[in-house]
Amino acid sequence: SRVFQTFKDKVLALAVLGKEPLAAGLRLIASHIDAPRLDLKQRPLYEEVDLAFFKTHYYGGIKKYQWLARPLALHGTVIKSNGEKIDLVIGEKPDDPVFTVSDLLPHLARKVQMEKKLSEAIEGEKLNILLGSLPLGPQEGKDRFRLAVMKILYDRFGMVEEDLISAELEAVPAEPARDVGLDRGIVGAYGQDDRVSAFCSLRAGLEVPPAKKNILLLFFDKEEIGSEGNTSARAQIIESFLERLFFLKKEPFSRKVLVRTLAETRALSADVAGALDPDYQEVHEKRNAPRLGYGLCLTKFTGSGGKYGSSDAHAEYLFWVRSLFNHQEVIWQTGELGKVDEGGGGTIAKFLAALGMDILDCGTPVLSMHSPFELVSKADLYMTYKGYKAFLTAP
């Protein structure tokens, strides 16, 4: 009754097959599992002033200064010259070494950092990860510090420097999730945008029994860079997986049937909402700003300015969702991202809406979004799970 499929090892689809034909439409929840980070460049390894470094290219919308002088871990995939695939993780175990991007001492930072705009004070090309400080070989040798790093990688993983060219390696905060506050009411962790939604929807999808409606959960990649590429919400992943489901259920399939199925589908774009920040209330319109501790947030539209780049949910569908949550005693709120002309942002909702389905953004409010340590209320987290489960089991 449950069908799993991965795409390129970066996207997961989970279906819970119901009694109805697929053409009657599905209950669909889609989230994304990528997060802002520091990706390694293809030729990353170098040495400078007797230290070894990796060059990086940041991924997604970050405040660059937040990534300085903090412990980082390396995660990713390396394909060795012999074709062997390595899933590499360094920095997460208590006895692992960690990595870092060094910062300039304040005594010398006035001209090169402090007198500049915040967006310009830290250059992307200076987000270089410190790897090592011990040399290899005689003092008169060249590249001793870079070679010392490569020897460690070879001895431990069998890697040579050319393997880095085709590798996908990323640096992320090397910190576990923590309770925040004396009352432990908040979870602080990296990547809760949007893994908190992915967790809630996955748990709900694994718990619901097969029933009348067919259920589909999708966990996409590349949302943080505009949903580009063949593992994003813009790719034809939904169509491909639905075709497989029609085959498994032995139901007739055609392009016409696929279009009708998508048009009959009701969906949630499971993405987080920017919570009202107590110290920066001036960028929010407080009557329409989600707050920590007030439940999961229904966001009718996203985008920026005049709703540019937005999926704007229909009144009838928003009514159906709020009525469902009220009936199931799910605590919810509404909100949008900041004042009208303050900024903005988008989700995958508009890409799924283009397939014809009704869709609404619905997720957990977050403080410190896109930082290395994002904050969510445990109460909101529970209501997000409860809301997703209610949605999946709705008639």
Task: Please give a structural write-up.
The protein contains 9 helices and 21 strands. The chain has 395 residues and is α+β, with helices and mostly antiparallel strands. It folds into 2 domains: 2-35 and 191-392, Zn peptidases (Aminopeptidase, 3-Layer(aba) Sandwich); 37-173, Aminopeptidase i, Domain 2, CATH 2.30.250. It has an 8-stranded mixed β-sheet with strand order 1-2-12-3-13-19-15-17, sandwiched between helices. Strand 6 (72-79) and strand 7 (85-90) form a beta hairpin. Helix 4 packs across helix 9 (378-392). The longest helix has 16 residues, at 192-207. It starts with a strand and ends with a helix. The mean pLDDT is 97.
Write the layout of secondary structure elements.
Elements: E1 2-7, E2 11-16, E3 26-32, E4 37-48, E5 51-59, E6 72-79, E7 85-90, H1 110-114, H2 118-121, E8 129-132, H3 144-157, E9 168-173, E10 178-180, E11 186-189, H4 192-207, E12 214-220, H5 237-248, H6 255-263, E13 266-269, E14 273-274, E15 296-299, E16 303-304, H7 315-327, E17 332-334, E18 344-345, H8 349-353, E19 358-363, E20 365-366, E21 374-377, H9 378-392
Helix pairs in contact: 4-9
